[in-house]
TrEMBL record:
Keywords: 2Fe-2S, Iron, Iron-sulfur, Metal-binding
Protein name: 2Fe-2S ferredoxin-type domain-containing protein
Every 2Fe-2S ferredoxin-type domain range: 1-104
GO BP annotations listed: P450-containing electron transport chain
Family designation: Belongs to the adrenodoxin/putidaredoxin family.
Organism encoding this protein: Ciceribacter naphthalenivorans
Cofactor(s) named in the record: [2Fe-2S] cluster
GO CC field: cytosol
Length: 105
């Protein structure tokens, strides 16, 4: 499953990962900067926020209530914000492109 992370300065990094991992795990295993993930994926910190590309937003499973509530604590929440730890990788998400924020808080 190929993923594209664009950082706040516009630099693209392509990584590949496997089904069942979360987007946050894929990012940290590949050393993607800009995702702190302080809580380790428990949907309890909001420091794994990413901005999902418009093309992909509607193709993700809808945002969960706890994810949405936690995003209220995120810095600079956008319409396209999601928590990377709550996005499970599936083959349908091959090519998923997200931007990482400059700061997580
Ligand atoms: Fe903490 Fe995602 S890693 S909310």
């Amino acid at each position: 499953i190929n993923l594209v992370f664009v950082d706040a300065s516009g630099e693209r990094r392509e990584v590949s990962s496997v089904e069942g991992r979360s987007l946050m795990e894929a990012a940290s295993l590949s050393g993607i900067p800009g995702i702190d993930a302080d809580c380790g994926g428990a949907c309890a910190c909001a420091t794994c926020q990413v901005y999902v590309d418009a093309d992909w937003l509607s193709r993700l499973p809808p945002i969960g209530e706890s994810e949405s509530n936690m995003l209220e604590f995120a810095a600079n929440r956008h319409e396209s914000s999601r928590l990377a730890c709550q996005i499970k990788l599936t083959p349908e998400l091959d090519g998923l492109t997200v931007t990482t924020p400059e700061f997580q808080f």
